[in-house]
Amino acid sequence: QAGVTIPWGGFFAPVKLPSDYFIRMAAAGLSHVEFGTESMSGQMLKTYRKPFRVRDVFSAHEQAVDAGLHVAHYFLLGGPGESAETVNESLQKIEQLPKAVFFFFIGIRIYPHTAIYDIALKEGKISSGMDLLQPIFYSSNRIDPVAIEQLVREQARDRVNWIIGSGGTDAASTVERMYSKGYTGPLWEYLIR
Q1: CA-to-CA distance for 126 and 117, rounded, in angstroms?
Q2: Measured CA distances, 150 to 93, 107, 114, 157 (Å)
Q3: What predicted TM-score, i.e. pTM, was given to this entire model?
Q4: Is the terminal CB of the chain with fewer CB neighbours within 10 Å at N or C?
Q5: pLDDT-above-70 percentage for the chain
Q6: For 180-189, what is each residue's pLDDT tens digit?
Q7: How far apart are CA 32 and CA 55, in angstroms?
Q8: What span, in angstroms and rounded, lies between the C-alpha atoms of 156 and 55?
């Protein structure tokens, strides 16, 4: 209503939203939506204590795409209880999210005074008083990080819109080329498929 047209992007939880939410946000200049989706396994979303379910992810995604916005999802694999089955469940459901970029991170950084700290301590992954200034990551007892990465890479099949971790040297090279050609802003929008 104020006529603000500055383009902006935001990080959102894919919770249940009013049907016109992203249309209104787009009218206020929103151009990029980044969802902290974490998983497409109902079991893992409960473990992560997320305030949304898989059906909400699909709904929020569709609303954002229909509003003409650039969409990305961030996934955090390897938490407590993660298994080959839950990873594969996520990967199959991700295939049903069109027109997006997907960022995959494996393992959860352990910070003091958090639930994951308590779980890691109980499971013997860390010890009390351990220096966590240097990053230490939680990984599931049911599937190791290497196996998770292999499952994601097999599903990704070299698609440029599936980015694992920081993307490595290939991603860095792509970003460098795009900057040299004058591209600015969140460059992931150019990877949307």
Answers
A1: 8
A2: 17, 14, 29, 11
A3: 0.93
A4: N
A5: 100
A6: 999 888 899 9
A7: 21
A8: 22
SS3 per residue for 159-172: CCCEEECCCHHHHH
Distance CA 173, CA 56 (A): 35
Per-residue pLDDT of 10-26, as tens digits, reads 999 999 999 999 999 99
Q: Within its chain, how far is the Cα of 179 from the centroid?
A: 24
Report the C-alpha gap between 167 and 124 in whole angstroms: 31
Q: Which helix (H) or strand (E) holds 104?
A: strand 101-106
Q: Please name the residue that has the structure tokens 């959102």.
A: 12
Q: What is the pLDDT of residue 9?
A: 96
Q: How many CA atoms lie within 13 A of 42 on its CB side?
A: 5
Mean pLDDT over the full length of the chain: 94
| Radius of gyration in angstroms for the set of CA atoms belonging to the chain, rounded to a whole number | 18
State in Å, rounded, how far the first CA of the chain is from the last one: 33
CA-CA distance, 137 to 117, in Å (whole number)? 10
